[in-house]
Amino acid sequence: MHKEVFQLFSKKEGAQHIASEYALMAIEKIVKQNNIHSVFEFGIGIGTIPYLLSTLNKRITYYGTEENEFCNSVLAENLGQSIESINYNAISSYLNFNGENKFDFIIIDGLFDDANFLKKIAHDNTLIFVEGDRENQREFLRKTFPKCLINRSISLNKNSKHSPYYDVSSNHFVGGYTLFRLNPNFRNKTSWFLEKIATSLKYKLRMII
Fold it and tell me: Are 40 and 63 in contact (CB under 8 A)?
């Protein structure tokens, strides 16, 4: 479903605010393969990820925040009836969470550096997803959760004709994310190891294709 969602949102005004097709594919896979029932997203953009989640056959409690005025102005139109199943507001409205609101999956697609709030909404098995190449966010998370397992994943895809950037960078590799697993248990260590190998191979393949 991620491909259809990417194509749909890439045609909308503000498409520069959407996640890559590779990131959407990864989010769909993570939600389907893990015990994900609650999601908090920093940086909803124009609504691509909550729309994707609404298409999956899972009951998911979704909270999100977006500071961009344009993005906020088009969310209702872009999400349609799905808007009724999500909670979104300025980050200031969530800072009074008392620790009872814990999330299985946290997505960071914008600037955020409040370690105390992040620790408040994460539990021991939370997965944290950082879309794109956000080195400052990755370093912030490394310091906030020093015992977590970290995977950087890249794609072998180049900009498709559906991408809003196709005309200017059709020959560039696009798509990547970093996944933080807070629980260093055996299952997560196995996944971490396999993804390390996969990413290493992709870097080598990028040099020859």
Answer: yes
In single-letter form, the type of residue at position 151 comes to N
Cα 63 to Cα 43, 56, 68, 104, 119, distances in angstroms: 11, 16, 16, 12, 16
Q: Which residues pair with 128 in a beta bridge?
A: 106, 180
pLDDT category of residue 113 using cuts at 50, 70 and 90: confident
Asked if pLDDT for residue 164 goes beyond 50, the answer is: yes
Domains of the chain (ranges plus CATH)? 2-206 (3.40.50.150)
> How many of the other CB atoms lie within 10 Å of CB of 67?
14
Q: Tell me the whole-structure pTM to 2 decimals.
A: 0.89
Tokens of 168: 């200017």
Q: Residue 99: how many CB atoms within 10 A of its CB?
A: 8
